[in-house]
Each structure stands twice: as C-alpha cells, then as structure tokens.
Amino acid sequence: AWAGGDVIYYLQGNGTSNFSRYSISGDSWSTSASTPEGGVRRGGNCLVWPGAGDFLYAAKGDNSTSFWRYRVSTDEWSVLDDFPAAYNMGNNLCWDGDDGILVTLADLSFWRYDIGDAEWNPLSNFPGTMIQEGAWVSLYGQTHIFATEGDESDLLWVYTLASDSWNVGPNLPESAAPGAALVSDDITVYARTGGGSTSFWKLVP
Hints:
Structural class: mainly beta
Distance between the termini: 24 Å
Number of helices: 0
Strand content: 35-45%
Largest sheet: 4 strands, antiparallel
Number of strands: 18
Helix content: under 10%
Order of helices and strands: EEEEEEEEEEEEEEEEEE
Shape: globular
Strand order of the largest sheet: 4-5-6-7
C-alpha cells in the first residue's frame, strides 16, 4: 500500500509477522514494526491506505476476523473491532473515496467501516456466487467499485456508492485466477488475470 509519500508498505503474509517499507527515492527496503496477534495469515491478508491521514488498515486473513490499524508516523500497530464475519482468500479491503473502508467477506456480505465513528455498517451483499483466490476490488472515480469473483470466473461486478447497488459489468477478457488484481487511476481500470498469465488489460469505463 502507498501512503501518499515516498514509501510503499508491504505486508508479507505466509504466517509471518514481518512488515516492511520500501523507499521509492532510495530504492531500498527496511523493516517496520511487526504485525500484532502472532502475525499475518497465509491467505487473504490485505493492506489499504484511505487516501489521506496517518493510518493504514489491514486484514489478517485466512478465516480470521482480525482488523488492524498501523500508524505511519510512530511505526505502531493497534487492534480494531473485528470484521463482522470471517475474512478469507479473495476478500479485499478498499477505500471508499470518503471516510470509509469497504470490505467483502467470506459469507458474501459487504461492509463499510466508518473511520471517524470506528464502527461497521452493512451494505448490499456482493451478488456473485463466490469470493475466492483471484477476487479483487478497486475504487474508480470515487463513485464506483469494480470487483471480480476469482476462482476462474470472468464476471466483473460494478458497485455504485451513491445507491448502494451492484450491477454486472463487461466480462473480463480472461478468467480471474489466483494472482489476479485490479487497480484504477480514476480514468482507466487496469487488470491482470493471474493464473500464470502474463496478460495485462485495461478497461475505460
């Protein structure tokens, strides 16, 4: 996760508590404070920066409900209120463009964490049939969320923030497999489809 400055933060996973930072200008890595609660699980861990401020937000993953916050200025972790349901492989965190963090959970529920009020609020459930490896979510234009299901599905879903509603988008050019990801610069949505493919795609909404 990028936090608006010269540093990219890396949540290592694989059952470790390792957390690292990469200096863009210095082209170098350094070690940051270890993650809490015995480290990060192997599947589904995720890290997001909400567009401003001193905090990053993280999911432990691997059927855990643990939700953490990292303070950049002091290199410290804290434990927040748990996710409302388990967070597993394919689940994702995403900034909502305002004061919230969005999360898809293993039971297909979709939630918003209000940063200012420090509380969870339910949204319309994810309409897909699964959330598996290769699933991903990405904010576009601070108005929509693009989401994939993973597990060799080529479906692309579009969530409208203003109406709390989901619709089917154009199919992916290749199925989303483990290693797939979406990212947006608010003009274009870029995708890799994973599964050993080297293909790189863009969608202009």
